[in-house]
Specification:
Elements lengths: L1 H5 L1 H35 L1 H14 L4 H12 L6 H25 L3 H9 L4 H32 L11 H9 L3 H29 L12
Helix pairs in contact: 2-3, 2-5, 2-7, 2-9, 3-5, 4-5, 5-7, 6-7, 7-9, 8-9
Main location: membrane
Keywords: Membrane, Transmembrane, Transmembrane helix, Transport
Subcellular location: Cell membrane; Membrane
Length: 216
């Protein structure tokens, strides 16, 4: 407990760095996965190639990908951009199938009605299909968020500072308290991100809160 109180500033700083490295790839990956998932849904012949290829990206070991990114991006080994890029790849891998399958849950009669009203494909995707698919997509985003919080910790092995640094430092010094604090901080951060996603989903899908029989 004394160690925790003496290092609160450091823990907060590492938590902030960890949050940025987990959330930024989540946003980037989602922006990439939305059109890819939409394409896979719109053209059935592309569903399997797109979804399978995206899924294979997740099989790449995280440490190997962190080390490979500097060669691809031309960045330094300690550049946080490597972690952001690698986790964006993992996020896309997780969310492409989620987006495609979520869009498949949109009722056909709703899509047909929008088409009959003369709503173009892009506008229909943004204003009809995507909002209705949001709850299902949100479930996948929650999984990706928790996964990112976990994988970011591995970047401590290549020297990128975040909560994983508490694991490596604690292990090197055989100091269990530091490791435990790092684990608890990661868990709390994952829970917080999950809660934020749930709240945001409820805010952008107010119709989901309407209970049958409550309408006057």
């Amino acid at each position: 407990m004394r160690w925790f109180l003496d290092h609160t500033d450091q823990i907060w700083q590492l938590t902030g760095q960890h949050a940025v490295l987990a959330v930024l790839p989540l946003l980037i990956g989602l922006l990439i996965a939305l059109p890819l998932g939409g394409l896979a849904r719109a053209r059935r012949s592309l569903y399997s190639p797109v979804v399978v290829t995206a899924g294979l990206l997740y099989t790449i070991p995280s440490l190997a990908l962190f080390i490979l990114m500097p060669l691809v991006l031309g960045t330094g080994i300690l550049d946080p951009a490597n972690v952001v890029a690698a986790l964006s790849v993992y996020t896309v891998a997780l969310l492409v199938r989620t987006v495609a399958d979520a869009l498949a849950t949109v009722p056909a009669d709703v899509t047909s009605a929008a088409r009959a009203m003369g709503i173009g494909r892009l506008r229909r995707f943004l204003t009809v299909d995507l909002p209705l698919a949001t709850p299902a997509i949100s479930a996948g985003v929650r999984v990706a968020a928790v996964s990112n919080v976990s994988i970011v910790s591995v970047a401590a092995l290549i020297g990128v500072p975040q909560l994983g640094s508490l694991f490596t430092d604690g292990f090197n010094r055989s100091f269990v308290t530091e490791i435990v604090v790092g684990i608890l901080a990661c868990v709390l951060l994952a829970v917080l991100l999950d809660a934020v996603i749930v709240v945001l989903t409820r805010l952008v899908t107010p119709w989901q809160r309407t209970r049958p029989g409550c309408a006057s």
